[in-house]
Design brief:
The chain is an alpha+beta fold. About 30% of the residues lie in helices and about 20% in strands.
C-alpha cells in the first residue's frame, strides 16, 4: 500500500529540466558571455519525506512546518479520507446539503467509518446552524494572523497535502466515499473551523442545542413576560456528567526519580477516547531536524502531536474536572420589543447578531435554504431551554460565556509542549500560551521530574465571587450579567477573561503525580493539593474534600501498593498496572456480600458461587466478570450502600464495604443479573473474552477491560451495545492510544499502541492490526531515531515534492 519510494511528477519534471538544460548548454556557443542560460527551476513549495513503520506508524521529516503539515496531511488522507472528509462537512455546516436535515451525523455501520462527535448529538440541520452561527470565522482568521507563524505554516501545508491526495486519487477513494460529491478540496478556513470545533468539546458543544434554540427565524420579537419555570440545574449536571465523566476519560501517571529504577522519569498515558468518531487518535512522528522532533498521536485530523514525547520529555492529557464556561443572566430593557437590549450597571447595550443560512437536501433531491439569526451579548451567545427555566422574554435572557469559542492557541501550545526540554520548560510554555482547551497535563522528563498541571482555559472567576451575591445558581455556574462587578476578571500575562496557569492547580514532584479525571485535589496521595490560602483555587477548577470515583482510587491503590514496598518502577511495571484489569468495586463489595449470600435461593447460590470463583479482574479469561458487571450496573445506584463512609483524610480507601441495610437491595440486583444472563443463555461463569469483543472484517477479537468509573477498572471500555446473547459488541470509546515512555542516553524509550488501528478504511492493512497486540497485552516498541526507523522490518518511504 505504501511504496518504498515514489518520485513525484514534480521531481521528474525538475530532473528532466536539468538534463535538458545540460544538453542545450553542450550544444550552444562556448565561451560567449552573452550566451543565454537556462533559468533555474524554482525550488519546490513543499518537500517532505513520509515513512511508515510497523502498524503503519507515520514518520514525517521536513525542513519547515509548511512541508511537515503537507506530508502529514497526505499520510492522514491515505488512512482516513472518508472520515475526515465527512467531518469537514460538520465544521463547515454542510451536513444537511448532502445528507438531509433530519439525519444524524454519520455513525459507524458494520466496518465503515463513523464521523459523529461523541461530545454532542444533533440532527444535521441543527448541527449546521450551530457551527455556522456560533463560530466566528472572521475572528478566527484575525487571531491566527496575529499569532505565531508556525501554526499558520502547518495549516497551509496541511491543506495543500490533503488536496494533493484528493487530486491524485480521484476515483480511487475507499468505497465509503468514492465518487461522493461531498469529498472535495479544503481551505485554510476549513482547518481553522476543524480546530475551533475541537476547542468547544467541554463548553459550546455542551450547550449546542440551547444555542440553536436561542436563534430566531421569525420576526425578531420576544414574548411578553409569562409565568416562567423555576431554574432547573439538573439538566446541566446531567449534561456535564455525560460529557466529562460517563463520556470520555483518561488515566495518566508520571513517575519521578525517587521511585524510578533508572532515576529518570517514566510516563504512562492512557486516554479513553472514541474509537469510531472524528476524535480518533493517529500515530505520527514529526521531525524538523534541529528544531522539532516529536512522536505520539495527533487528534481528529489536527496537524500536531497532542500526546507523546521527544528526546527529553513525555506527556499525556486527561479531561479535566474544571468547568470551562459560565452562564450569565441578562436584565433586558423592557422598552425594546425585540428583547435585544440589555443593561449593565443601568447602561443600555445592544446585542450583536449573526444571520446564517443552511442548505437542506429534500427527499425529492432538491435543496431549500433555511435561515436563523443568532444573538450575542458581550458575555456570549443567547441560550434557551424553557423547560429548565432558561427562557428569553422581554425582561430576561441567558447567555453562555465560552472562553474557548475564540481559542486559536491550541497548535501553538502543542508545538510549545513538543519543543520542551524539561517539565519546567513545558510548564513555562503552558503558562505563556494558555492554549489547552479542556485537558490536564501530566509529564515526566529525563531528569526524573514529574508534573501535573491544569493549564486549561478556565474563566477567571475567583472564589470570592462564588461566595458573594454575583452567583445566582451554583449548579448552572450562573452569574449576574447586569453588573460589571460580576464579570470575569483579568490575570496578568493571560488572554482576556481567563486564569493564567500560574494561578491554577499544578504540582511538581520527584516521586509521582497522576490523574484519572477527578479534580486536582488528589494528584498525589501523599500530598493533597488544596490551593493557596485562605480561599484555595476557584471552584471552577473542581471540588476538594469529596468522594473520588472508583477508577481514580484503583489507580492510586495499585501504584501505592508497590511504592510503599520500596519498589522501584520500570516501564514494564506501568504496563502491568494499566492492563491489570482489576475491578475495584468487586474488591470492596464481595468480601461482605458473598458470606451473606442466602442459602435458600438456588439462583443466588449459583450466582454467589460464580462470583466466589471469579478472579475479580476483567481479563479475557476471567470467569464471572459478565455477571458482576450486570449486577453492579444496578447495585451501584443503591443509596446508602457503603459500610465505611467517605473520609476526606483517606480519599483513596473510602468509602467501602456493604452496609447491612443495603444487603436486600444488593441481592435483588444480583438475582436480577443472574436471571438476565440465564435468559440470554450466558453461563454465570462465562469468560469475559467470549462476551466482549470487537469485530472487524468478520473477525472477532476478544477484549479485556472493564467499564471504568462505574466499576473501578483502570483500563476502561464502553461497548456500543449492552449485553446481548452474543455479549457486548464493538467498542464505542475507551482505551485508545496507550503509551509508556522513559529515557536512556540515546533518547526516548517508548512502547505504545493505538488499539483501534491507524486507518478507518476496511481495506487497509492497518484497519485492525493493533487489536491483536492489545488483546494479548503485547507492547510494540516505537522507533524514534532515524536508524531505528530504517531498521524496522516494515519500513517504507516516499518523498513528496510540490
Amino acid at each position: 500500500m505504501y511504496p518504498t519510494r515514489v518520485i513525484p511528477v514534480v521531481a521528474r519534471t525538475v530532473a528532466l529540466a536539468a538534463v535538458l538544460g545540460s544538453t542545450l548548454a553542450a550544444c550552444g556557443h562556448h565561451g560567449d558571455d552573452d550566451t543565454p542560460s537556462t533559468p533555474p527551476m524554482p525550488a519546490p513549495q513543499f518537500s517532505a519525506e513520509v515513512s511508515r513503520t510497523t502498524h503503519g506508524v507515520v514518520h514525517v521529516k521536513a525542513a519547515d512546518f509548511r512541508s511537515l503539515g503537507y506530508g502529514l496531511a497526505y499520510a492522514y488522507a491515505q488512512d482516513n479520507l472518508c472520515m475526515f472528509a465527512d467531518s469537514l462537512l460538520t465544521a463547515r455546516g454542510e451536513r444537511s446539503l448532502y445528507f438531509g436535515g433530519d439525519a444524524p451525523a454519520t455513525a459507524r455501520k458494520d466496518d465503515e467509518y463513523g464521523a459523529a462527535s461523541g461530545f454532542m448529538s444533533l440532527k444535521n440541520e441543527d448541527s449546521d446552524f450551530f457551527f455556522k452561527g456560533y463560530l466566528d470565522l472572521d475572528q478566527l482568521r484575525a487571531s491566527y494572523a496575529a499569532g505565531a507563524k508556525e501554526p499558520r505554516d502547518l495549516l497551509d501545508g496541511y491543506v495543500a497535502g490533503y488536496n494533493r491526495y484528493l487530486k491524485e486519487n480521484a476515483g480511487k477513494y475507499p468505497a465509503a466515499c468514492n465518487n461522493a460529491a461531498w469529498v472535495k478540496p479544503m481551505t485554510v478556513d476549513d482547518m481553522m473551523l476543524v480546530l475551533a470545533e475541537k476547542a468547544l468539546h467541554a463548553s459550546g458543544e455542551v450547550f449546542a442545542k440551547e444555542i440553536v434554540a436561542g436563534a430566531r427565524d421569525g420576526n425578531g420579537t420576544v414574548a411578553a413576560r409569562a409565568p416562567q419555570r423555576k431554574l432547573d440545574p439538573a439538566f446541566l449536571l446531567a449534561r456535564l456528567d455525560e460529557v466529562v465523566h460517563r463520556g470520555f476519560g483518561s488515566n495518566a501517571l508520571a513517575v519521578g526519580k525517587d521511585l524510578s529504577a533508572s532515576g529518570r522519569g517514566l510516563l504512562l498515558g492512557n486516554p479513553h477516547f472514541p474509537w469510531t468518531s472524528t476524535d480518533r487518535f493517529y500515530q505520527a512522528h514529526l521531525t524538523i531536524p534541529g528544531r522539532y522532533d516529536v512522536m505520539g498521536v495527533t487528534l481528529g485530523g489536527l496537524p500536531v502531536v497532542v500526546i507523546g514525547f521527544n528526546k527529553d520529555v513525555a506527556w499525556s492529557h486527561t479531561v479535566t474536572a474544571a468547568t470551562h464556561f459560565t452562564t450569565f443572566r441578562l436584565a433586558l430593557d423592557a422598552g425594546d420589543a425585540t428583547g435585544t437590549t440589555y443593561l449593565i450597571d443601568g447602561e443600555k447595550n445592544k446585542m450583536t447578531s449573526k444571520t446564517v443560512s443552511v442548505d437542506v437536501l429534500q427527499a425529492d433531491g432538491t435543496t431549500t435554504k433555511r435561515t436563523k439569526t443568532f444573538y450575542f451579548s458581550k458575555q456570549g451567545a443567547v441560550i434557551v431551554k424553557p423547560e429548565a427555566g432558561l427562557a428569553w422574554n422581554n425582561t430576561t435572557a441567558y447567555v453562555l460565556a465560552d472562553p474557548n469559542r475564540g481559542n486559536t492557541r491550541m497548535l501553538e501550545q502543542w508545538l510549545g509542549i513538543g519543543m520542551a526540554t524539561s517539565v519546567q520548560t513545558l510548564k513555562s510554555s503552558l503558562d505563556t500560551v494558555v492554549g489547552l482547551p479542556w485537558v490536564n497535563t501530566v509529564a515526566a522528563d529525563r531528569a526524573g521530574n514529574a508534573l501535573y498541571a491544569d493549564a486549561s482555559v478556565v474563566p477567571r472567576v475567583t472564589t470570592d465571587k462564588f461566595a458573594g451575591n454575583c452567583l445566582l445558581m451554583a449548579a448552572l455556574v450562573l452569574f449576574d450579567g447586569s453588573r460589571n462587578a460580576c464579570a470575569w476578571g483579568q490575570d496578568a500575562n493571560a488572554p482576556a477573561g481567563i486564569f493564567s496557569p500560574v494561578n491554577a492547580p499544578s504540582l511538581l514532584r520527584t516521586d509521582y503525580v497522576q490523574n484519572s479525571n477527578d479534580s486536582y485535589w488528589l494528584t498525589n496521595a501523599r500530598a493533597l493539593l488544596t490551593g493557596p490560602a485562605p480561599l484555595g483555587y476557584s471552584p471552577l477548577f473542581g471540588k476538594t474534600g469529596v468522594e473520588q470515583r472508583l477508577r481514580t482510587r484503583i489507580g492510586f491503590i495499585q501504584f501505592e501498593e508497590l511504592a510503599q514496598q520500596g519498589h522501584k518502577f520500570q516501564l514494564a511495571d506501568l504496563q502491568t498496572l494499566v492492563f491489570a484489569d482489576r475491578i475495584y468495586a468487586a474488591e470492596i463489595v464481595l468480601p461482605d456480600l458473598l458470606p451473606a449470600c442466602p442459602a435458600n435461593d438456588a439462583t443466588l447460590v449459583q450466582a454467589c458461587t460464580a462470583l466466589a470463583a471469579w478472579d475479580r479482574h476483567a481479563n479475557i479469561d476471567s470467569r464471572g466478570a459478565v455477571l458482576f458487571r450486570e449486577f453492579w450496573n444496578t447495585a451501584s445506584q443503591i443509596p446508602n450502600k457503603w459500610k465505611v463512609p467517605f473520609d476526606p483524610a483517606d480519599p483513596v480507601h473510602t468509602p467501602s464495604g456493604v452496609a447491612p441495610g443495603a444487603m436486600p437491595a444488593m441481592f435483588a440486583a444480583l438475582k436480577g443479573a443472574a436471571q438476565k444472563l440465564q435468559g440470554l443463555n450466558i453461563p454465570l461463569d462465562g469468560k469475559l473474552g467470549d462476551y466482549q469483543g470487537e469485530t472487524r472484517n468478520g473477525v472477532r477479537t476478544p477484549l479485556h477491560g472493564g467499564v471504568g468509573d462505574l466499576d473501578g477498572s483502570y483500563n476502561s471500555l464502553r461497548m456500543a451495545t449492552g449485553l446481548t446473547a452474543t455479549g457486548y459488541n464493538n467498542v464505542y470509546w475507551g482505551t485508545s492510544y496507550v503509551q509508556t515512555v522513559t529515557f536512556d542516553d540515546a533518547g526516548p524509550v517508548a512502547q505504545a499502541m493505538l488499539v483501534y488501528g491507524q486507518s478507518t478504511d476496511p481495506m487497509s492493512p492497518n484497519y485492525a492490526d493493533q487489536l491483536g497486540p492489545y488483546s494479548r497485552k503485547e507492547w510494540p516498541a516505537l522507533p524514534f531515531t532515524e536508524a531505528g526507523i530504517k531498521a524496522d522490518p516494515n519500513y517504507k518511504t516516499i518523498t513528496l515534492l510540490q
